[in-house]
């Protein structure tokens, strides 16, 4: 099983760039890097700089996956560099990124639908609950963008892998992929985000497994808060997820699947499950799966009360770069330990 890291939460990656990140990942014994953006390869998207950076990864025997941005057009204003890359047209910017990244020999591309605004402490932090546009309209607009991107992806032998992000259910991601065509679209399975939508991670893994081509692997701590239930990130093996079952499910469908750890920078990324707010249930929360999430929460709280895992204060504590790197390395060791069990 190939175990790598996501660059966006890897200490030093943002400041030092992709070539440094590839070298550092290799030094640490990791198998690859999942870059969130082509701009990590070159600040100006210079073809030579991008090619040279990817060659560093190739020479080290690392896998490389690269993100191209968000595909929900209602999120486009928050990514002005993509619109600028398309000379004013956001879709043209995405098309050009597909062309440039696939020219490097990278054919698994990441995308997501929306953002999460941590600066807001309300349900409106999640774009699913925007009041200026309905979620159904956002999904329809996203499907239209995917239809426009499909021919370009097919022409370049690429897959655009939509993330199970915190605003979208795994069922909705599957529907988008099946509607746009699995020959050009896949799924980036984020093991932690599905809980934000009240989903059982094992059930979600089974739903998405046929289409998963990329991953964001991290564990989850769940704790009751004033907002409802708080989801916090934890190193693999130290939270509530059933890793042997999840890995077995994913690898049975795709034995060559790279497993990329998405770590933490500064915080454990608390996201509330607004279980006391009627709006949170809009779009269909499965009651049986939510009941499993509540059981997982109760189990974690018992462990926290026994001092086995961090409680709420510890989960909200600041994490420095040393802790962030430790998160990745502990997760990598745990994943490799689970691999024989999951086989």
UniProtKB/TrEMBL annotation:
One Pfam family named in its UniProt record: AP_endonuc_2
One annotated GO molecular function: isomerase activity
Keyword Nucleus belongs to the record: no
Domain Xylose isomerase-like TIM barrel: 22-262
Highest taxon of source: Bacteria
Keywords of this entry: Carbohydrate metabolism, Isomerase
Protein name: Sugar phosphate isomerase/epimerase
